[in-house]
Structure formats: C-alpha cells, structure tokens
C-alpha cells in the first residue's frame, strides 16, 4: 500500500477533532469517494491518523470528523506496532454465517462499551490510495473493526446492533457524561 510518510512524525500532527454522538453527520449515509475527492482525502489523513492514534482507537471513519465521504482508517496492530490501512469505498462482499460477540467501543461514543454480535469473518473490497481495487479477508478483531467502520459510512453506530433498551441506556449515559464535561 501507499506509504504514509507523515506517520514517521505523527505525534507532531494536530489531531482532527472527533465528533461525538448525537451529531447528524454520524447518522448520514456518506457518498462514494471519486478521483476528484482524492486530494481532500489525502489532506485529511494526517489529522485523522493523529486523532485515531492519540485517542487511542483502532478505526476512524470520515463521518466521525464531519466528512460525508466513504473512507476510513484502521490499525489493529498490537501496542507499539503499526499496521495502518486506508480504505476507500470499502464494502463487505462476503461474510461468514458464524457469528461472534465482541466488546466494541467507538471514538464517537466515548467511554461506552457493549458486546456486539457480528459475523466472525468477512471479505472486504476497497480501493487503496493509489486507486487499486483490492480484496481482503479478515476475521476476529479486524473483521469486527472493518464492519464497525463500514457501518459508520452508512450512518450506523455499534449501539444500533443492540436492543433498544440497551441503546437508549448508553445514549442517555453518554449525554449525561458529555454534559458533565
Ligand atoms: Zn466507531
């Protein structure tokens, strides 16, 4: 994949502010990235990576910084290592029947966590920064992360996979915490 030279000194890059729910842009369906958008996408990457690593988080989708475009970052490498991925127009093209529950959180729902049931494995198709179409098989943590980030591009938050009762509880708790900040 394309080198991301700014990552060498990412600590010196100002993190782009991450929007917290409920923000309407987090609930909107983002549009496809076109070649004309690529300059903007590239320009947003340093601030987005900085924000994701600083949080720290393992994924960040463009709507979370208020940009309604279908791209996201992920990095599920162990602490102290890096494996950054930029996904342009990603889509899940296959998923396993087998499901698994995994605890999820979200930088747009700070301090809120819940177990979400999703397919344990997926195949994803996406474009790289160079415009090359690639496919990737993922399972476990990476599969969860990819599904979570692609959900963001469709205005879906992890709490939408929970019961209404649980979702309302989390959203109320979040609103209360945000007020108290
Ligand atoms: Zn999220």
Automatic annotation (TrEMBL):
Catalysed reactions, semicolon-separated: N-terminal N-formyl-L-methionyl-[peptide] + H2O = N-terminal L-methionyl-[peptide] + formate
Domain of life: Bacteria
Cofactor-binding details, from the entry: Binds 1 Fe(2+) ion.
Example GO BP: translation
EC number: 3.5.1.88
Name of the protein in question: Peptide deformylase
Keywords: Hydrolase, Iron, Metal-binding, Protein biosynthesis
Residues where Fe cation binds: 106, 148, 152
Active site (record annotation): 149
GO molecular function: metal ion binding; peptide deformylase activity
Family: Belongs to the polypeptide deformylase family.
Cofactors required: Fe(2+)
PANTHER family: PEPTIDE DEFORMYLASE (PTHR10458:SF22)
Membrane recorded as keyword: no
Function: Removes the formyl group from the N-terminal Met of newly synthesized proteins. Requires at least a dipeptide for an efficient rate of reaction. N-terminal L-methionine is a prerequisite for activity but the enzyme has broad specificity at other positions.
Keyword Hydrolase included in the entry's annotation: yes
Organism encoding this protein: Swaminathania salitolerans
């Amino acid at each position: 994949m394309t080198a991301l030279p700014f990552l060498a000194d990412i600590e010196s890059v100002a993190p782009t502010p991450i929007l917290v729910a409920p923000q309407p842009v987090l609930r909107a369906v983002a549009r496809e990235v076109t070649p004309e958008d690529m300059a903007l996408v590239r320009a947003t990457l340093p601030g987005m990576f900085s924000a994701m690593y600083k949080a720290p988080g393992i994924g960040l989708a463009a709507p979370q910084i208020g940009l309604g475009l279908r791209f996201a970052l992920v990095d599920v490498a162990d602490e102290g290592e890096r494996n950054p991925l930029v996904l342009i127009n990603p889509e899940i093209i296959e998923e396993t029947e087998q499901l698994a529950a995994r605890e999820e959180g979200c930088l747009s729902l700070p301090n809120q966590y819940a177990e979400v049931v999703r397919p344990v494995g997926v195949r994803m198709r996406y474009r790289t920064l160079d415009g090359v179409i690639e496919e990737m098989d993922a399972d476990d943590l990476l599969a969860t992360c990819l599904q979570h980030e692609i959900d963001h591009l469709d205005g879906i938050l992890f709490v939408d996979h929970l019961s209404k009762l649980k979702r309302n509880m989390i959203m109320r708790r979040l609103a209360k915490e945000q007020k108290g900040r």
